[in-house]
Amino acid sequence: QVLGREGPFPLILLPQFGGFWIEGTNHQLSGTPESPQTPAPSTRAKLEGNHTAKIYRKHFLGKEHFNYYSLDPVLGHLVFSLKYDEQEQLHLLLRTRARTLHDVVPISCLAEFPNVVQMAKLVCEDINVDRFYPVLYPKGACPPTPRRFRGGLDVTHGQTGSESVYCHFRDKEIMFHVSTKLPYTEGDTQQLQRKRHIGNDIVAVVFQDENTPFVPDMIASNFLHAFVVVQLEQGSTQGTLYKVSVTARDDVPFFGPPLPDPAVFRKVSTHGAEKPEPPNFSRSSSSASSFGSAEEPGEHRFHMYK
């Protein structure tokens, strides 16, 4: 029905029964064309983060401390770190698949010095284990060589395609799953090789060659929560332009940086302007109620449609 009307059409059409919010609905340029503004060197768009993900690096890494592990029948694998500092305090850090818990306990507050299990229970009373096992580092063992973030792609045998889009942004590794670069299997109506990456990402970037609206619930996925829709606008007196709209499920909190009004970017400005959006979207989406026990994301994977 929508396509039967006279255009231009919006970049995004919200589903008939709701469930999504949208930002960036005005794409009408008015007035005299302005020159692209170059951000000041000190200007930095905010990249959303979670301070708990950096607690180990801040308080434990490079300092004398002890690491332990155990397996809880309900909470799953547990990693517990403790450190005694010169202020006579215990730094306690418990990491589970669902969350990271940190506490600082003055020694003077303890009637008697607890064992490792008791110390872990000071951070999380739900722990149900008999003991924690120390993490041992064999003498002379070499630390593993760091590898670039693969985003679930096969970089050894090429079973997920021969190339993708990868970049660094603010010390974050970003891997894009590009639909046209993932394997296409003739005769496979399900296209499972593409589906297993598309359906398991949290954020999707949809690139529109033409003025065809996108409806966010047209893709059935329990993981896809947010979409950044980009539409090319050529033939303008201002050069090549990109219209941008974002949409997400209702339980995904709003995040920054906000889109300008109108939500239109010149080609020269898109590189720096939009980069914070997908990582912030990923971080914000992980706070949605449907990700109640989701693991805190350390790297970011995104899907690109065209």
Helices and strands in order:
Elements: E1 20-23, H1 55-59, E2 66-72, E3 76-84, E4 89-95, E5 100-106, H2 116-123, E6 133-134, E7 165-169, E8 172-178, H3 192-198, E9 203-208, E10 226-236, E11 239-249, E12 264-266, H4 270-273, H5 277-285, E13 300-305
Parallel strand pairs: 8-13, 9-10, 9-13
Antiparallel strand pairs: 1-11, 2-3, 2-6, 3-4, 4-5, 7-8, 10-11, 11-12
Structural account:
There is one protein chain. The chain is mostly beta strands and 306 residues long. Helices cover 11% and strands 28% of the residues. Strand 2 and strand 3 form a beta hairpin. The longest helix is centred in the C-terminal third of the chain and has 9 residues, at 277-285.
Notable traits:
Rap/Ran_GAP_dom, 5-stranded antiparallel beta sheet, Rossmann fold, 8-stranded mixed beta sheet, mainly beta, 28% strand, GTPase activator activity, Arylsulfatase, C-terminal domain, Rap1_Ran_GAP, 306 residues
Give the mean pLDDT: 76
Q: How many β-strands, per DSSP?
A: 13
The residue fraction in helices comes out at 10-25%
Q: Number of helix segments?
A: 5
Q: What would the principal axes of the Cα set say about the shape?
A: elongated
